[in-house]
Amino acid sequence: MALTTHVSQVDKTQTPYKLDPDQTLRASQALLKHVQAELKRLQESGGKRNLLATENSDEEDEEDDAQPIWLTLGTKQYITDKHRLKPSKIPVPHSLNSNENSTICLITTDPQRAVKNVVADPAFPSSLASRITRIIGFSKLLARYKSYEQKRQLLSEHDVFLADERIVSMLPKALGKVFYKGTAKRPIPINMAPKDASKDKSKRLPKDEREAVVAGPAAIAKEIEKALNSVPVSLSPGYNIAVRVGLDSFSPDQLKDNIAVAATAIIEKHVVSGWKNVKSIHIKSPTSVALPIWLAEDLWMEKPTGPAIETASEKTKDSEAETTGIKRKRKQNTTRGAQSGERKKTRLADEKAKDKEDGAARKARLSAQKASAFETD
């Protein structure tokens, strides 16, 4: 079924740097209609629903009852993120993890007993505790899940992975490409440390009696709920940002609300220069084309602003310099003023003229010596 939508004209009396709610709603309606029609076609033809799985994830990694809706944001200039190993979270009005039957795996600091005690505490919400099917410390994660198949099995056993933000930057090496080749089940960081962690005296205990410094049941439960009601944003160096903002079970209004909140938060938090650096915003499903909901009139910026932006050519030069072991000189700020270039040109011209004068005088002196030598003969 063909998807049809159009880009609404921007009101010239208002700023173009915002989403049009009507356009977002029309695109959401068209996309969800296409997804449902495609699902019906597959069911009638005897196809399986997991054929809609994304290219970046395994078939068994996708939920059986819902398929993701992606928001893709294109930028005009190259964007890098120094903290890309620690994804950020954007709270959305409609959670993608509201299914009560979905399971949660908690990855904690060592030892894991402290977190297990917190989850078993009567003050911890029972509805949330029933969804947490595994709590594993970082050391046991490294010891038990070494092979590719073991990590793949862990991935298939749980729907959501949450990790203590103190160790989340070490998980890519521990979990490998099984978890990180896609974004669907990357561990979401949560803050498990108490506010007064620096005053904790457990570090004075023997190592075998020491427990991890974690917050109380209410604080950890609040962090988990916050993570479940948010969408994670994992940036890769480039010109595009892709974030899951909905499911095909959403209504058009629910999808529209999530898109508006997620797009605004991504631009404010991750895109240097904000809306001026945004080239396009689209939404898509795993089997559809990308539907535009916002397109910029200017396709480029005059010059980069901010330390987080660099051109692709500069990135290529940096990588070549690193591989060859040659340190490329970078331009340094100068305090000589705007006329430093003109003074340099003038100095070089004076030196060149002086060299010419010295050469002419030398030739004249040699000619005089020759003439006097002939006269002597």
Automatic annotation (TrEMBL):
Q: Where is the composition biased (Basic and acidic residues)?
A: 341-361
Is-annotated flag, keyword Nucleus?
Answer: no
Keyword field contains Endoplasmic reticulum: no
Keywords noted in UniProt: Proteasome
The cellular component terms of Gene Ontology attached to this UniProt record, alphabetical and capped at eight, are:
proteasome complex
Q: Which Gene3D superfamilies match?
A: 3.30.190.20, 3.40.50.790
Q: Where is this region: Disordered?
A: 1-22, 307-377
Please name the InterPro entries in this protein's record.
Ribosomal_uL1-like (IPR023674), Ribosomal_uL1/biogenesis (IPR028364), Ribosomal_uL1_3-a/b-sand (IPR016095)
Cite a single Pfam family from the UniProt record. Answer: Ribosomal_L1
Q: What is this protein called?
A: Proteasome-interacting protein cic1
Q: What species is given as this protein's source?
A: Lithohypha guttulata
Its encoding gene is what? CIC1
